[in-house]
Amino acid sequence: MSKLKLAILISGRGSNMQSILEAAKDEAYPLKPELVLSNRPEAAGLSVAGMFGVQSRIVNHKDFGSDRLKFEKTVDAVLKAHNIDMIALAGFMRILTPWFVGEWAGRLVNIHPSLLPKYPGLNTHQRAIDARDVEAGCSVHWVTEGVDEGQVIAQSSVTISAQETAQSLADKILPLEHDLYPLALAKAANELMQRDGAQN
Ligand code: GRF
Fold first, then answer.
1. Residue with the nearest Cα to atom 1 of ligand 1?
2. Is the distance from the beta carbon of residue 137 to the nearest atom of ligand 1 less than 6 Å?
3. What span, in angstroms and rounded, lies between the C-alpha atoms of 20 and 180?
């Protein structure tokens, strides 16, 4: 079976990246992790990638000042040099421009810690508590121009308890993210392969 070449973009801890790398050890997984790319040199996830034998690259956004496009063109060139088929954003804390999103349309997936379309952006856990929601969760979605607005691929949810804090809720949702992301990504990869196959 031919696998799609996957790049995982991170900015920090990389626990979602790790769950994908674990899942990809399975022969039947449709994606081969080719590259981990971080915009932060100090991202802890970089050494985890090394432990899995996956090569990593740093493209430090600070080297580009406010020139977001130049940063993205550099990232894009690295991805294309590695013949990447699909990108998973996993705690990648840069908002992407329409140019980059257009360049990778239909190949770019993100995980977000809310039940989209609720709470795009930051502070999702606190916002769910403040709204007195009964449940919260996480979503894996295709990335489009609007932040956290693309079509949802899969979601998981938990109940918000009476004493919930943003931290306790984040701690409850993170393991769901780790289960959901590899599965949703595989689903997205299969969709992409069917789409590509249909075009040939
Ligand atoms: C996760 O909660 C993810 O949903 C959000 O950022 C966090 C990243 O955590 N986008 P990690 O780096 O994967 O551990």
1. 91
2. no
3. 10
Task: List per-residue pLDDT tens for the chain, 200 residues long.
Answer: 689 999 999 999 999 999 999 999 999 999 999 999 999 999 999 999 999 999 999 999 999 999 999 999 999 999 999 999 999 999 999 999 999 999 999 999 999 999 999 999 999 999 999 999 999 999 999 999 999 999 999 999 999 999 999 999 999 999 999 999 999 999 999 999 998 887 65
Residues 6+ apart with CB under 8 A from 98: 145
Amino acid identity of 185?
L
Ligand 1 pocket residue status of 180, Cβ below 6 Å? no
| 8/33 Cα distance (integer angstroms) | 7
Q: Of 61, 112, 125, 141, which is the active-site residue?
A: 112
Per DSSP bridges, beta strands 86-89 and 4-10 are parallel
CA-nearest residue, atom 10 of ligand 1:
91
| Distance in Å, CA 15 to ligand 1 centroid | 7
For residue 170, give the nearest of 2, 43, 16 by alpha carbon.
Answer: 16
User: 37 CB contacts (<8 Å, ≥6 apart)?
Assistant: 7, 8, 9, 10, 56, 57, 58, 59, 75, 78, 79
Q: What is the pTM of this model?
A: 0.96
Q: Does residue 94 line the site of ligand 1, with CB under 6 A?
A: no
